[in-house]
Write a structure and sequence with these properties.
- This protein has 14 helices and twelve strands.
- By secondary structure, the protein is of the alpha/beta class.
- The protein folds into two domains: 197 residues, ATPase, nucleotide binding domain (Nucleotidyltransferase, domain 5, 2-Layer Sandwich), CATH 3.30.420.40; 183 residues, Nucleotidyltransferase, domain 5, CATH 3.30.420.40.
- The strands form two sheets. Strands 1, 2, 3, 4, 5, 6 and 12 form a seven-stranded mixed sheet that branches. A five-stranded mixed sheet has the order 9-8-7-10-11, with helices on both faces.
- Helix 3 runs parallel beside helix 5 and helix 9 packs across helix 11.
- It is globular, with a radius of gyration of 21 Å.
Length: 399
């Protein structure tokens, strides 16, 4: 037997595995690194977060990725070069963290790498009849594995698309395994660049849903960066708090066809970007709207569209438990707007379940890697009937 396959077989048979989960989102603020100890698989999964860090990207890294990110027309040579280059940057960050944590690479079984999303193209967005759903994440798994000396599982989204999905959001798999509770209706809301949620009905007859809702922080962050060079987001909603919501602009922002598509659905900055905002301003004659009013309106836009989507799922007679993660949890105005719109929900951070809200996405990819090597995807076919029952991830060996 090939020694790499033998090593992977040994890892798959261990009672517990040490896995590094990586997440690099559309905000490009940095690389989230979650060192997890995972035992079991499927509904028997037990996960402990051993270490977590979020390493900010350099200005040069952001500049290089933004040269191809979410653009229809890019330099193909640059895209080709960035695929291994991003992996090597991530490998360097991993090696740095392992040294800081005083952890030998040989004690780490797997790296689970989401990669860097470059373009998300669901059929509902591109509308080209001869093509289906597609997405592209770069940061080559082979380079990452060789540069760290650790087996790497990467490129998770392609199997989901090949099996009939849109490649996102994948959070439903991990949310179901980690957060399902019989008899308790739950919503796991993640507010990153794009917002998504998993609805867990709490009983076998209920319909589980995992879907994007629309913008999370993406337009707010982009607008702040445009108006205040050097500022990456509206910290503590300091700008938005001083503004007034413009109802005409808000209604125009919410008028796009995406919000009328049924669940599940996906989207990205390819739709929700500064051009989208500018087009809405032109249509409503609000080009001269003060910055603070624009931010207040964008904040309300994100909250309204999240709340509208969740409201279609939850039983408003019950105290639905809502667990929030992602960067949006740190935006107090956004959370207040959500609470106003969703009075039937009991708001919590995922921290109340033992999961760091900033680490959750990286943790979920570690869990997907664990399922790839040690799980039985049929658990999703038998139990979580709304999830495509596939094992995701491509395997790269270090030698």
């Amino acid at each position: 037997m090939n020694s790499n396959i033998q090593h992977l077989y040994t890892i798959a048979g261990k009672p517990q595995r040490t896995i590094i989960g990586l997440m690099s989102g559309t905000s490009l603020d940095g690389l989230d690194i979650a060192l997890c100890k995972i035992s079991g698989s499927g509904l028997e999964t037990k996960l402990e977060l051993l270490q977590f860090d979020s390493i900010a990207y350099t200005d040069n890294f952001k500049k290089e990725v933004r040269s191809v990110f979410s653009k229809k027309d890019v330099n193909l040579e640059k895209l080709t070069l960035l695929n291994p280059w991003i992996a090597l940057q991530h490998a360097g960050i991993i090696n740095q963290c392992l040294r800081k944590w005083n952890i030998n690479k040989d004690s780490v079984d797997l790296i689970a790498s989401h990669g860097q999303s470059i373009y998300h193209a669901p059929a509902s967005l591109h509308k080209l009849k001869e093509f289906g759903n597609a997405t592209l994440q770069i940061g080559d798994g082979d380079h990452l594995s060789v540069a760290t000396g650790i087996i790497c599982i990467s490129d998770f989204r392609q199997k989901n698309i090949a099996a009939g999905g849109e490649g996102a959001p994948l959070a439903g798999y991990g949310d179901y395994l980690l957060f399902s509770k019989q008899g308790e209706e739950r919503v796991l809301l993640n507010i990153g660049g794009i917002a998504n949620f998993t609805y867990l009905p709490g009983h076998e007859d209920g319909k589980m849903i995992c879907t994007d809702t629309g913008p999370g922080n993406c337009i707010m962050d982009a607008y702040m960066q445009e108006q205040f060079p050097g500022m990456f987001y509206d910290e503590d909603a300091a700008v938005a708090k001083t503004g007034l919501v413009n109802i005409e602009l808000l209604n125009e922002l919410k008028s796009v066809a995406f919000f009328n598509i049924g669940f599940p659905k996906t989207t990205g900055p390819e739709l929700f970007n500064l051009a989208y905002l500018q087009n809405a301003k032109i249509k409503t004659g609000t080009n001269d709207l003060p910055v603070a009013d624009t931010m207040a309106t964008l904040n309300k836009f994100t909250a309204d569209t999240i709340a509208a989507a969740i409201g279609k799922c939850v039983n408003k007679k019950n105290g639905v438990k809502l667990f929030i993660s992602g960067g949006g949890i740190h935006n107090p105005l956004l959370i207040d707007n959500l609470k106003t719109q969703l009075p039937e929900c009991i708001f919590n951070s995922t921290a109340s379940t033992g999961i760091n809200p900033d680490a959750k996405e990286a943790i979920l990819f570690a869990l997907l890697a664990n399922e790839c090597v040690a799980g039985n995807h049929l658990v999703f076919k038998k139990q979580a009937k709304q999830i495509i029952p596939v094992s995701m991830g491509k395997i790269s060996f270090p030698y």
